[in-house]
Amino acid sequence: MSRSYGASSYDDHFCLKPPALLWLAVLYLSRALLLLAMYIVSSMSLSRVNPQAVAELRGTVSIYAFIPALVAAPVFYGLLCRGPTSSGLVRWFWSHGRTILIVATIVDAVISIGSSGIIGGDALALNAGFLVAALFDAYFLVYIFATRRVRDVFADFPPFTTPTPRRRRR
Fold this sequence. Notes:
This protein has 170 residues and is mostly helical. It has helices at 20-29, 31-45, 51-60, 66-81, 88-95, 97-116, 128-146, 148-155. The protein has one domain. The protein contains eight helices and no strands.
């Protein structure tokens, strides 16, 4: 891996920090799960579920949006839990994270294009929102696939250290 980055590009474990655009790409690909989590948290704080919120959630997220979100979820978890005491499973997901994100981006683009109305041939029923989503997917696909920094981030992980047990106070 090329170590031609500035000192501020490294974290406390001397590993390359994920860039903000990579965070944005992972959040974008995981948007269905994040919206579901926000819905669950907001409904737990209320005594009953707001039917209008349920209708808006159904209108915002289709069941097909959960497919790329579930594919990208392990990388999102790896971004949150990346550290020296991380498990072998997190390390495996991280080392394959670039490939996982490329697959999630392609799946999301296929779903967006399929939902836009282009494939059916009805030009009057085109949904511009899905086409914009496909453009985001194309941008993130090129970014994840072609950027050296993303490749270097996924090749770098803090070395394993066993967690130190906490002492009890007497």
